[in-house]
Amino acid sequence: MVKEVAEAAPDILKLHVEAVELAEKRRREWEIECQEYRRAERERIRLKAADESKQALKDIIDKWGEAERIKRFFDQAEAALSEHAVEQHSELNSRLEAARSVIGQNEALNAMRSWKTPDELFTEMIKGSYWEFD
Fold it and tell me: Distances from the Cα of 55 to the Cαs of 60, 87, 88, 130, in angstroms?
């Protein structure tokens, strides 16, 4: 039996070397697959951040347009006040002021302050995640 084990030693060593080489090859392939997956996932997140940032900006632009439309209304209404009698002028002016207070201020600039660029959103999305460390 000792003789058989001694004769098998080169074959066992060869099998061991082949197994180690195969394991290393599979590890390298796995590492490449992981790197590709991480790259693709980061790109997916980057595109999502760009889309979300763009949509948020479009929403701000819509708010701005609405605010400008409202401002024009009040400007035109104030201009039209001069066409009314003095006694109506005071009442209409009070009503315009009340209407302004109901509508509020233009929030588009405040929204712009809180808007995040695609890069800022991307950084937020990956912060503390697995993808941050690539």
Answer: 9, 48, 45, 26
Q: Tell me the two tokens of residue 73.
A: 């209304």
Q: Where are the domains of the chain?
A: 2-133
**Per residue in 22-80, pLDDT tens?**
999 999 999 999 999 999 999 999 999 999 999 999 999 998 999 899 989 988 988 88
Which of these, 49, 68, 41, 48, lies nearest to 115 by C-alpha position?
49
Q: How far is CA 64 from CA 10, 67, 83, 100, in A?
A: 80, 5, 30, 16
Distances (CA, A) of 95 to 5, 36, 73, 103: 105, 64, 13, 12
Beta carbons of 113 and 29 less than 8 angstroms apart: no
Token representation of residue 116: 């995040």
Per-residue pLDDT at 120 = 94
At 73 the pLDDT is: 92
Element (H, E) at 121: helix 118-126
